[in-house]
Amino acid sequence: MKNYKKLISIFFVLVANFAFACEACKLQQPAITQNLTHGTGPEGKWDWMIVAAIAVITVYTLIYSLKYLIKPGEKDKNHIKHSILN
């Protein structure tokens, strides 16, 4: 069990290093996305519209995936969705 805890903690430390932007990228980002991504980030109005559309699609997908995971609508007890809920 101790080995798993060590591996999980090492994994999260490594992921944390790549999850946030480095110091050089923070300076190139707008204020909203300053610590989130690497690179230059959205620069024009079209870029922000694309980011907004992707955010809406992502939230929509998350809501419906949770909806169908919680209430799958299948009555058969052998359906694969019920194995996830149990």
Task: Indicate the multimeric state.
Answer: single chain
- What share of the residues lie within helices? 55-70%
Number of helices: 4
How do the SSEs run, as a string of H and E? Answer: HHHH
Q: What Rg do the Cα atoms give? A: 20 Å
The major pleated sheet works out as: none
The best one-word shape is flat
Give an account of the 3D structure.
The protein is mostly helical and 86 residues long. It folds into 2 domains: 1-41; 43-86, no CATH class. 65% of the residues lie in helices and 0% in strands. It has 4 helices and no strands. It has helices at residues 2-19, 23-28, 45-70, 80-85. It is flat, with a radius of gyration of 20 Å. The protein starts with a helix and ends with a helix.
Short characterization:
By secondary structure, the protein is mostly helical. About 65% of the residues lie in helices and about 0% in strands.
Present the secondary structure layout.
Blueprint: H1 2-19, H2 23-28, H3 45-70, H4 80-85
Properties at a glance:
mainly alpha, 86 residues, 4 helices
